[in-house]
Amino acid sequence: MIQVGLAGWGDHDELYPIGMNSSNKLGRYHEHFATVECDSTFYAVPSQQVVHKWVDQTPSNFHFIVKAYQGMTGHRKMDSTFTSNIHMFDTFKQAIAPMIETNKLACVLFQYPPWFKCERKHVDILRRTRAWMGEIPIALEFRHQSWFRGDMREKTLEFMREENWIHSVCDEPQAGEGSIPAVIEGTHAEMTMVRMHGRHIAGWVNEASSDNWREVRYLYNYNVDELQEWVGHVRQLEQHSKHVIVIFNNNSGGHAAGNAKQFMQLLGQQTAPMAPRQISLFD
């Protein structure tokens, strides 16, 4: 089974009536897509009350991919509100418990930073993370080429299979060590993730030098040929895993929802129409 969705539900204005309150958007989002990547959890661990609300706003067949909190992936130091790393992990697991209890959690995505290189100390961190997450399904995404360079490619994939990691396959700009190639391999019988980041090289490499890098990093509009190429890749991944989830993250310019619907159509899936927009005098 292939499901297509977006990174976040709040920023895709073309899905919602003009003026819709942000608190109501998830309830409308599921009319378009059956899965979503919850990226707000990367910036702060939500309360269980908030997660209950998300669960209550979605139907029984809806799935969440939850991005691991940035303290859990080394993007920032552990917050002082946590007494230890284990406390931080346990707090996060307690927060997402409503998704687990209702079978709405697809997986927790651990996206590691560009400085997380293929080194023994980082392999140890991955093993520790797998142990601390217990039976919760977890996906792994790298941002450093060393994990897939040369003979490390097969070693990394085999490690992921042995440790029961879901592979997050990426389409992203090929811009040196801080990006990874699209490795079309599943490592988990139940699920494979695909994340479509776009191919805007300039936005990808200028993170440290540009004040508005967050606004342009995912600025990309996939063309039909590029989407068709990924239809083939996703069909291939479907041979490796029962469930393939494709997330479009190219929303710096508002292209994610449109590309996701194009992709669904290329897969032969039905799509709901975008929300009607008010026509202005100058349209």
Automatic annotation (TrEMBL):
Pfam families attached to this UniProt entry: DUF72
InterPro entries in the record: DUF72, UPF0759_sf
Cited PANTHER family: UNCHARACTERIZED PROTEIN YECE (PTHR30348), UPF0759 PROTEIN YUNF (PTHR30348:SF13)
Annotated protein name in UniProt: DUF72 domain-containing protein
Naturally occurring in which organism (per UniProt): Paenibacillus arenosi
